[in-house]
Amino acid sequence: MKFFFRVLLLFTLIIGFQYNSYAAEKVEYLKTDWSFKGLFGKFDRGALQRGYQVYTEVCSSCHSMKYLSYRNLAEKGGPEFSEEQAKAIAASFEVKDGPNEDGEMFNRPGKLSDKFVMPYENIKAAQAANGGAYPPDMSVLVKARGGGVDYIYSLLQGYEDPPAGITLDDGVYYNKYMYGNKIKMANQLSDGLVTYGDGTNATVQQMSKDVTTFLMWAAEPHLESRHKMGFKAITYLIILTILVYFSMKKIWSRIETEV
Amino acid sequence: MSEHEYTPKSKVGKWFNDRLPLLTLANHLTDYPTPKNLNYWWTFGGILTFCLITQIVTGLVLAMHYIAHADMAFDSVEHIMRDVNYGWLIRYIHANGASMFFLAVYIHIFRSLFYGSYKSPREIIWIIGIIIYLLMMAAAFMGYVLPWGQMSFWGATVITNLFSAIPLVGEGIVTWLWGGYSVDNPTLTRFFTLHYLIPFLILGLVVLHIWALHVPGNNNPVGIDIKKPSKDTVPFHPYIVIKDGFALLMFMIVFAFFVFYTPNILGHADNYIEADPLVTPAHIVPEWYLLPFYAILRSVPDKLLGVVAMLSAILILAALPWLDTSKTRSAVFRPLYKQFYWILVADVLILGYVGAMPAEGLYLLVARVATAYYFLHFLLILPVLGLKEKTLPIPLSITDPVLGGSSNFSTAKNQTKIE
User: Fold this and answer.
1) Mean pLDDT, chain B, as a whole number?
2) A chain contacts of residue B261, beta-carbon cutoff 8 Å
3) Nearest alpha carbon to residue A213 among A205, A137, A66, A29
């Protein structure tokens, strides 16, 4: 047993090294309780639905989510809108389809199978509309940033007046948590910006938490089944390991050597 | 290599075996006499076989869904993660499997270093092992390029650019490797092809590695030659099979923890950003298992010499059976070597650490000292130590020290210290 702990310790050290190295410029991120962390972590359904609302009403005017489809909104482990709700959401968007029999492109209401409609035709158009900065696609954004959910959550609340001595160009804003502190996205959230259907008070903190939860789900849509399966798999392995351990003891007891 | 001739009991079995002696082979594998004092460090051979097969099987499934095209690779990986049934599971097993593979291979290599398993008559096993290790690094590197994220792209750019250090033909070679004037679609498709090929080369070499092992038989913690079969050995089945199985299960628990609970901790966040040739990441770092060599590369100011140093750091291992002049195999009986061994382990860990840090200031200095020590260990300390060191008396058989029958008490005590 001692042996395995030694190996484990060694590996933990190696990971520790690497983990540290990525967070070379460390800032303390704002902390909050994420329901999806831990062995049995699950998404907070309400937060996901509210987060989707924040995304559509605020973020989606600039940020695409090209890997998500409207059907995902009704799938298990996600916001779990009812199928009717998801259909209604999809239908509220106009999707460009075609070409039809006359060779023309045409617009039609969205269907469950459609991908989330993109705010811009292409990256160039997105850059042109945003002072040269491309608002990144948010499908896997949480996994694409070193600090993960804590980073996004903090960034949304990290807008401040720049400290004395720092001058900002036009269209550049100061954010405590941004790499280099300069960000091209203006502060988007203010208290009461959206009106939540479930009566939750839409503070900046609440909206940040909801939309970050939504982004986490968008990046890891199978997180809940992963946690569930992980618990089963590891429990199974532990039981099997114990059984094999005793079998091994029994078999090796035929000879005098210890195992 | 079985001591006795094997004849199948059934008529059909005998008929078949006379034409293709598969049953003789199976009999050899089950009866294979194994030293009975092997400790758990010896279970990593079996674990590595498991890792290789896991990578091949999950890799096959991934290849069915992956698209090796610069415009579609990143999308197809997300397609696997979202829409392929259990695609997320397969991909996370494959990605974390690479790390687990390297974790196991490093333990396996350092076990050899401690117990002198590379020494005569096992030099060929060792050299095949080094070739496998080199191929593993190539496969892992190319595999990391396939998702076509930022770290994939820039890692590929940095590593392929190393070839440009070769005088005169360097630039030409790099263009040839890329299939163009930068890392692009042709690079991706050939990396995918090679990434698919290499594991099967490794599989073939693993067969040779085991074949070569079965000629002299396993080394053991005492490091002495033993008579086979004898009271010092046990048949491979069931004794070693169940022990390897137990260790493998322990290993799988750790593996499963990574896959299910922290699947991305060993990867770099930047690799979830699609490759962009116009944006260079702030720090380009390889995967953790390549960091020590990356540190050696960067610690040499000259590009060509850096590449030479990095390659020598690996290839020097192949010369190890001749660099280590000591006749005694196991470090258990080499009090001085044992200390230098642990210094080397620390040295490699330090190299790994500074490899992840920016190459400047104190980090660079530490990297240089550690690199120098690495080569010093193999080129000076080992040859001299083998000639000067006073080794402890070695028992005549495994059974002696275990039963306490050895006249040399200190030997028996040391024996118990290593599990």
Assistant:
1) 93
2) 39, 227, 230
3) A205
Q: Tell me what pLDDT residue A11 has.
A: 65
What percent of chain A is predicted at pLDDT more than 90?
82
* φ and ψ at residue B98, rounded to 5 degrees: -60, -45
DSSP B28-73: HHHH-EEETT--GGGGHHHHHHHHHHHHHHHHHHHHHH---STTTH
Residue A4: list chain B partners with CB under 8 A: 40, 250
* A-proximal residues of B, 35-64, CB under 8 Å: 36-37, 39-41
Cβ pair B246:A241 closer than 8 A? yes
CA angle B328, B333, B337 (to 5 degrees): 80
Q: How far does the CA of residue A187 sit from the closest CA of chain B (Å)?
A: 23
Query: Which residues from B are below 8 Å from A139, CB to CB?
Result: 78
Q: Which chain B residue has the Cα nearest residue A136? A: B273
Contact A11 B103 (CB under 8 A): yes
* CATH superfamily of the domain spanning A35-68+115-221: Cytochrome c-like domain (1.10.760.10)
What is the rounded (10 degree) CA torsion for A121, A123, A125, A128?
160
B340 vs B351: CA distance, rounded Å: 16
Give the C-alpha distances (Å, rounded to integers) separating B185 from A109, B73, B151, B281.
36, 10, 16, 20
Under the banding of pLDDT at 50, 70 and 90, the label for residue A26 is low
Yes or no, beta carbons of A256 and B272 under 8 Å apart? no
pTM: 0.92
d(CA B232, CA B399): 6
Distance CA B20, CA A244 (A): 34
